[in-house]
Amino acid sequence: MVSQPLLLKTELYNDLLRDNEMESMTVLSCNATAQRLDAIPLWRRKQDGPMDEVSIALLEILLPHVHTALQIRRELQAANAQKHFAELTLDAMSSAAFMVSS
Fold first, then answer.
1. What domain range is 39 assigned to?
2. What is the pLDDT of residues 76-94, one digit of tens each?
3. Number of structural domains the chain divides into
């Protein structure tokens, strides 16, 4: 948690939030494990007050889709890392090799 005095000193606040009067944040926790936390911050103006029931219901409807998108993103990142490692390995070899993917 960041205190308000510390938030007011950050680039995030000074470059983005202050000009748009965004002072309240709700965190949508999408996935939490011992190794990883996926969360989406939702900023609101002070005069907007707390989220209403319709907004909360919409977030609950969207949450499974956010889970799916984050899972796809993690799998693409893992595939990209594997591809990069394979390319580095092939570049380090002194003999010719072919890389076949399915």
1. 4-92
2. 999 999 999 888 887 888 7
3. 1
